[in-house]
Design goal:
The chain is of the alpha/beta class. Helix content is 44%, strand content 14%. The chain folds into 2 domains: 245 residues, Periplasmic binding protein-like II (D-Maltodextrin-Binding Protein, domain 2, 3-Layer(aba) Sandwich); 98 residues, 3-Layer(aba) Sandwich (D-Maltodextrin-Binding Protein, domain 2), CATH 3.40.190. Helix 4 packs across helix 13. The N terminus is likely disordered.
Amino acid sequence: MKRKLAHINARRAHYPRHRRLGAAKLTVPAVVLVAGVFTVVLAFLFLTPGAKSDNSAAADSSAVISTSSNSVAPRIPSKKRAFRVGINFWTGLAEKKGWFKEAFEPLNAEIEVVDRRVAGGAEAALFKRGDIHIGERMAYPTLQHKANGFDFVVVAASGEAPPRRATTIVRTASTVKTLADLKGKVLGAHRLGCPYFATYEALLGAGLQLDTELKKGDVRHVNITGQPAILALLSGEIEALSVHLAMPDYAQLFRDGRIREIGTALPGGQYVTNGGRALIVTTRNFANENPDLIQAYLRVYERARRYIIDEKHYDEAATISSEQFRTPKDISLFLVQDAETRLTLNKIHPDAQEAVDALKSFLHWAITNGDDFYTTKPLTDAQVEEFVDRRFFAGGQYYVDTTGTDAQLAAPLTLPKQ
């Protein structure tokens, strides 16, 4: 017992003064010890790959990636990444044939095909929540998202759009035969959709002004979309409707002979040459954190385009599409096969500057000609320049050469593991 007391007294002599810290009565040496242990634990948690969130794991693929073409290639993260894409007739085929698995497994990622139709016009919300990571949209609505502050970037772009990509329809029994006959009548169109702009421009070409918030016109506009728009048209509440005919509901009405076209986008106009171009877009954060996944997606996109469009495997694609969308086979075949109205699998143009110039030209025309959205929310040339991510175009580090062979497109991307 004496020896034990002597040992305790010796320790007290070594630490003669104690600093009381609050109610816990901790000594300074104890606090130092606890702080050291806490630091080691934190370091272990943050440096251990398995302890990171999905977003942190995705960020591992590149750390900080610049927008220049000479940025450092990403490493494959140790934690599996999810890559969520919207359902359409080619993603279903790519999934069923195993192309997505071939492309993404070597990158420690897997595809989730999401039915984005449930979101309707709120697709931007899906992107914001991370429920979807990449999408295909026309230039017009994508630029609207950009003007509203949503940080999209363009990773691929098509060339000019066919005039029938956006059309104006009426009931088959309507007395309206041409766009000029709409004077004094009501046109329905979704204000955030590019068919609106196509008809707006076509009406100007026919000598008519659409009635907007900024300017009184000859044709009254009602902002309407989806099933309410179809019911309003068929019941006669509105006389005409601006649409993409390559949408299942409108395609069915067209094939059934219940609607007919009275006009297309203006041939040679701004919609056809610029605003109706198809863009593949993602968020800037996702492109920076996962450029390898974007590149893999673009390779599968081109592989599917060649298989379905160039090699004309329309029937196979339509069969899969009809199962996924629950549409009749003949409607799915129309959506896949009709080149004049088709919305996806457009041939990608590799020139980033061409895409930038097309977007600038469209915006300048829209503002000059009184488009009420872009007049009130204009985008600068500098904003358009940074909207197009040049890393994924010709000369960029993640460019997919669409002139390459099928074997090159099918070969997996192999990147160093962490």
